[in-house]
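S.,

Sequence below, as promised.
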Amino acid sequence: MIIISLIGYTAAFCSTFALLPQVIKVWKTKETDQLSAGTFTMMFAGAILWLLYGLLREDIIIMLANGVALIFIGFISYIKLIYNKSS
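The prediction came back faster than expected:
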């Protein structure tokens, strides 16, 4: 059972923090022209659904991972909305 939890924690960490380099780049440059609004909309919807699933299953790892992902996705989407001059 410990190995299953370890796999889950590792997967949650990798999936969640895969967005961190993009968050850092957007924070520094404020450039989001190359980022797809559709992709981030789908990622946002997926993270909300995963968070809901985690809440219903009372699974703290799913809740935490997707809560953090929502913060990252929300930040990138906000910067895109504010700084994207081509929309």
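The mean pLDDT is 91.

Coffee later?
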